[in-house]
Amino acid sequence: MKFEISNTAKLPTSFGDFKLTAFREYTTNIEGRACELEHLVISSESLPQIPLVRLHSECLTGDVLSSLKCDCGGELHLALKLIAKEGGMLLYLRQEGRGIGLFNKINAYALQDRGLDTVEANEELGFPKDARNYDIVGEMFKHFNLTEIKLLTNNPKKIDLLSRFVKVQRSPIIIEPNCHNEHYLQVKKEKMGHLL
């Protein structure tokens, strides 16, 4: 795996004061084209022995545009509040649309508008229900000398995958549903095994 690590800078936010480090990963996208993914590690000023960690995949529509179709923006904000309070880090991975990219995600949204759920839409487009890759996370953990974490997640797949790199304790992250994302959350629970 080829990657670079930036310097670390200060990041004051409305959630608290953090440090910010970028990881540039040289990889291929879901369609096999070479690309660079620039991921972020947003960490508290100091890390406890067992830090609280949120592995958050980019969701432009939820994180930036406050979409009500998903729970991503709410989870991001809650995670930053908890990390500022308890100490830890948020790994912001540039894997939009569970790894299918923004263009394909919007096409999946259009299929959802016609009645398909999030899993069916990805599969209709010829993609797996979850195409994300977490190999860079192992390098992030090495860089920060982490051997054990409390992972903010409802996704058992993330627990299994990250257990290759560190000892993982699970800490749930629950966001209040709304009328636009209730079905989405039900699909995550029933078809993807999320602990909701």
UniProtKB/TrEMBL annotation:
<dbReference type="GO" id="GO:0005525">
    <property type="term" value="F:GTP binding"/>
</dbReference>
<feature type="binding site">
    <location>
        <begin position="96"/>
        <end position="98"/>
    </location>
    <ligand>
        <name>GTP</name>
    </ligand>
</feature>
<protein>
    <recommendedName>
        <fullName>GTP cyclohydrolase-2</fullName>
        <ecNumber>3.5.4.25</ecNumber>
    </recommendedName>
</protein>
<dbReference type="GO" id="GO:0008270">
    <property type="term" value="F:zinc ion binding"/>
</dbReference>
<feature type="binding site">
    <location>
        <begin position="54"/>
        <end position="58"/>
    </location>
    <ligand>
        <name>GTP</name>
    </ligand>
</feature>
<dbReference type="InterPro" id="IPR000926">
    <property type="entry name" value="RibA"/>
</dbReference>
<feature type="binding site">
    <location>
        <position position="72"/>
    </location>
    <ligand>
        <name>Zn(2+)</name>
    </ligand>
</feature>
<keyword id="KW-0479">Metal-binding</keyword>
<comment type="pathway">
    <text>Cofactor biosynthesis; riboflavin biosynthesis; 5-amino-6-(D-ribitylamino)uracil from GTP: step 1/4.</text>
</comment>
<comment type="similarity">
    <text>Belongs to the GTP cyclohydrolase II family.</text>
</comment>
<feature type="active site" description="Proton acceptor">
    <location>
        <position position="130"/>
    </location>
</feature>
<dbReference type="GO" id="GO:0009231">
    <property type="term" value="P:riboflavin biosynthetic process"/>
</dbReference>
<keyword id="KW-0686">Riboflavin biosynthesis</keyword>
<feature type="binding site">
    <location>
        <position position="70"/>
    </location>
    <ligand>
        <name>Zn(2+)</name>
    </ligand>
</feature>
<dbReference type="InterPro" id="IPR036144">
    <property type="entry name" value="RibA-like_sf"/>
</dbReference>
<dbReference type="GO" id="GO:0005829">
    <property type="term" value="C:cytosol"/>
</dbReference>
<feature type="binding site">
    <location>
        <position position="59"/>
    </location>
    <ligand>
        <name>Zn(2+)</name>
    </ligand>
</feature>
<keyword id="KW-0862">Zinc</keyword>
<dbReference type="InterPro" id="IPR032677">
    <property type="entry name" value="GTP_cyclohydro_II"/>
</dbReference>
<dbReference type="Pfam" id="PF00925">
    <property type="entry name" value="GTP_cyclohydro2"/>
</dbReference>
<feature type="binding site">
    <location>
        <position position="158"/>
    </location>
    <ligand>
        <name>GTP</name>
    </ligand>
</feature>
<feature type="active site" description="Nucleophile">
    <location>
        <position position="132"/>
    </location>
</feature>
<feature type="binding site">
    <location>
        <position position="118"/>
    </location>
    <ligand>
        <name>GTP</name>
    </ligand>
</feature>
<keyword id="KW-0378">Hydrolase</keyword>
<keyword id="KW-0342">GTP-binding</keyword>
<feature type="binding site">
    <location>
        <position position="153"/>
    </location>
    <ligand>
        <name>GTP</name>
    </ligand>
</feature>
<feature type="domain" description="GTP cyclohydrolase II">
    <location>
        <begin position="8"/>
        <end position="165"/>
    </location>
</feature>
<dbReference type="GO" id="GO:0003935">
    <property type="term" value="F:GTP cyclohydrolase II activity"/>
</dbReference>
<comment type="function">
    <text>Catalyzes the conversion of GTP to 2,5-diamino-6-ribosylamino-4(3H)-pyrimidinone 5'-phosphate (DARP), formate and pyrophosphate.</text>
</comment>
<keyword id="KW-0547">Nucleotide-binding</keyword>
